[in-house]
Structure formats: C-alpha cells, structure tokens
Fold this protein.
Amino acid sequence: MKDEDIKRWQMTLEVGPNASVHDIKNSYLRLRKLYGGGSIVLEPLEDEFPEKRRMKILVDLEEAYTRLLELHRNRTSPGRPAGEAAEAMAVGEGPPGGPATEPGAPYAIEETVFSGPALRRVRERLGIDLIEISKQLKLRTELLKALEEERFEALPEEIYFKTHLKSIAACLDLKPGKVVEDYLGRFREWKRAR
C-alpha cells in the first residue's frame, strides 16, 4: 500500500494515522449515515449534493473502511505478507465474516456458540485490545478477562454481566441477543453443575 493511498483513505474517513479499529468503525458509520440519504444535514444542500455524488462518496467510504481495516490487520499480525490479510478476511479469519454484508450491519459470524474464548477470538481478529474496550465501556479489564476466560465465579450477578455482554457484543459488531443467549446458556449449565 502506498503512503498517499493510506493518507487518502484516512482523509476520506476523517481519521488520523494512529486511529484505532474502533475509531475507524465509528467514523465510517457516522459518515455512512450522513451521506446515506435522508440526512437532515444534507437535505438543504440537495441541489449541491445530487444522488450520483453521494453514491460516489459512499463507495469511497466503503473502500477506505475496508482498506484501513486491512492495514490495521497487517500491522497487528507481524510476519503476515501484505496481501494475505485481505484473503484472511475473505475466508472469515479477519473481521468476522469479512466486511458487513450491508454497511453498518452486524458482521455475519460463523461461530455456532458464543463462549468466552469465541468472544476473545473475535476481539483479537479485529485487533481490539481489552484496554480499549475497558475504556470505551468503562468496565474493569479484570471483569472483561473473567468473561473471556469463563471464570464464572468471578463474575457479578447475572443481571449485571448480561448488560456487559450486550455492550461488548455491540463493540465487536456482533448480534447482542445471540451473544447473551449463548453465553448465559453456558453460565447456567455451570451454575446447575455446582
């Protein structure tokens, strides 16, 4: 990847060179919503922003988002050849299911059951640190580790960590209902076995 391409993608998504995956995703979603049509901001400028121009911007946003995620993946996977990250994403090794089938939609996940280790694998594939999620959700990293390691005895009451699971799932572009259902199923099995 050329430096000028990277700078162009960063400018398109309005992110800096040190942007995290979370920053890239949030900027992409914000801009996609803005230019996606029906925006109250662009409505008065409809003559200056015809449909064709908005569609070009949306295509550019999609490319920038995909390329910057690929770049981030290459940086967080030392020793991986440059073009291999895109191939990994295509077969489901990168961000789960590759780019969302519909921009801004949750990723399609091939995991059958969302266990703690499955959540950790998804987070690592996205290149997101526990500390980043901890700061964003204002949760202790010890709690996040306990969730991923399924140390159920270290978790708070079910009602509390259920809410935490929903928030974590949203951070990882997963379907919160599926994550909570699967994880609570495993927790309840553990609880019955005690």
Q: What stands out?
A: Residues 35 and 161 are 36 Å apart (CA to CA). Residues 3-90 form a domain with the Helix Hairpins fold (CATH 1.10.287).
